[in-house]
Amino acid sequence: MKKTLIVTFGLLGLFVAIVLAAIRLYMLYHEPQYRDVLYGAWFDTLTLILWPSSFYLTVMVSKEPPKVAVVVWSIAILLNPLIYGFVGWVVWRILKAVSPVQG
Fold first, then answer.
1. For the chain, which residues score pLDDT lower than 50?
2. I want to staple 27 with a disulfide (CB 3.0 to 4.6 A). Which of 18, 34, 72, 91 is the partner?
């Protein structure tokens, strides 16, 4: 149960990060159409709640070389499964502590 729960949370974190990264890159590519969403607070808040490691993207202040951009985006995406996996471990510990002892 422990391993399955942690892996499930980790995969969910990877999926969320990839989907939100794809949405953000799509909106950046079509910036004039999505300017109000990109620069509105609600999308950033939603992104930071579901993809906490996206905070790492703030190090990209201006146009960066492609190598730097790929490294920063990769770190931001690959860090999210670790965060979600940790949350899965915490959930498992809570479920283990709350469940009655079977003997």
1. none
2. 34
